[in-house]
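Ligand: protoporphyrin IX containing FE. Inputs:
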Amino acid sequence: MTVELSSQGTLAIPHPRRRVPILGDVLGVDPGTPVQDSMRLATELGPIFERKVLGKRFVIVSDPDIVAELGDEARFRKHLSPAVAALRAIGGDGLFTAYSDEPNWRRGHNLLAPAFTQSAMRRYHESMVDVAAELGAHWDRSAGSPVDVSADMTKLTLETIGRTGFSYSFDSFDRDQPHPFVASMVRALTDAQQRVSPLTLLTGRRRRRSREADAAHLAEVVDAVIRSRRDADGGDAPDDLLELMLRAQREQDPNRVDDLNVRHQVITFLVAGHETTSGALSFALYHLSRHPEVLARAQEEVDRVWGPDADVRPTYEQIAKLRYVRRVLDESLRLWPTAPAYAREAVEDTTLRCGHRMAAGDWMLVLIPALHRHPVWGDDADRFDPDRFLPERMRGRPAHAYKPFGTGERACIGRQFAVHEAVLVLGTVLHRYDLRGEPGYRLRVQERLTMMPTGFSLSVTRRHRTDRPGRGVPLLG
Ligand code: HEM
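Predicted complex:
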């Protein structure tokens, strides 16, 4: 990166041309799409630029060298951006919204990390297969009408984290409307993201009331889940996240957390554990529907690894063998990383190698979709190409050019969970259906802290044995 130094010897950071006094860089900005606006600004202004909104300064970076430096845990740590700090209204000091020096972050991390190891995934596998099969049954019932992909992926991922983490079913596929938990969560996330916008500042009181009602509703749902567990006969309690926390309380474990934090952790995992994976699956299905050659290759792989039985229940080992499907997921998360930003603050005064000085507490926002389109990805970085994730091509790129799951000790604890679930679900869909997107659909991305395709539907038709090369006899009907 080339740098230009200001008269004070620090990096002169570009900003949007038309800056308005007091309000800041708001012209041409849509409060509903701050991430996509910033992606556009990154192409205009480069891999480090600033935006000011109502006196709040955001330094936004997408340069792999700077991102690598910000990942140095000795000099930087997680910062709660204004949007993430606003989420504390529902997540309190749960893992995602805790400050790194809050005691409950370390305790919660130590307590819950064993539930996210690769071997722990074996315990969740059968429940994940069950939920994927329910999606199949739901789509079979759609009888040829297009399915709303993001809505159904949200049902699926909420159901999966509910059952695996808390042995609780939201009965997602038996509902016409999303569970009220989802409606409250979507409003809470959207509200958090828009909290820094001057336009939304004007709608104060009504917004505050609705925010409080949503926080109360989320707490109510979660307290009911916790209560039903406490009331149950503890004899054969399921081995899940909730049990880990309740057992630690009973056994006076040094990492035990109090009742309020148990609530915060459950809300955190229900939200963080489904919203991002739902978006990742929806984007992957969007790309598959747009790239018939990728779709055919992915289907060929699933047929080969899982065999011809349309109602197959894949084994745990058969998920990791879907290498090409995994590359489809990785490439979807490159173009549309569904948790699109994370913030890092300087632990003490420091100077970046590019010359930019940061005082202790100064922070920068890593804009992941722009990092994932940096020139190190080549001059066709906007093109969907899963083979970018072939091992030999990955070795040729800087490691910090790909960060969909964040960085360091505050990186995503649920990464293995998300990958196992997403590959399993994509495998199930590809094995069972042919997919056809609406020909006129142009990708629209909704932002609510996370990103999700909107208005995207697919026509799904059951595949026959004759659709699987070299097989012969029809499987159905
Ligand atoms: C494709 C799916 C997912 C993506 C893209 C994703 C992305 C991320 C990112 C970027 C962070 C770091 C945020 C920051 O530094 O501020 C994060 C943290 C976190 N994620 Fe995920 N995530 C996904 C799935 C999951 C799942 C399935 C779970 C739980 C089952 C989960 C639970 C969490 C939690 C609890 C944190 C906070 C960790 C901590 O700070 O200790 N995520 N995730």
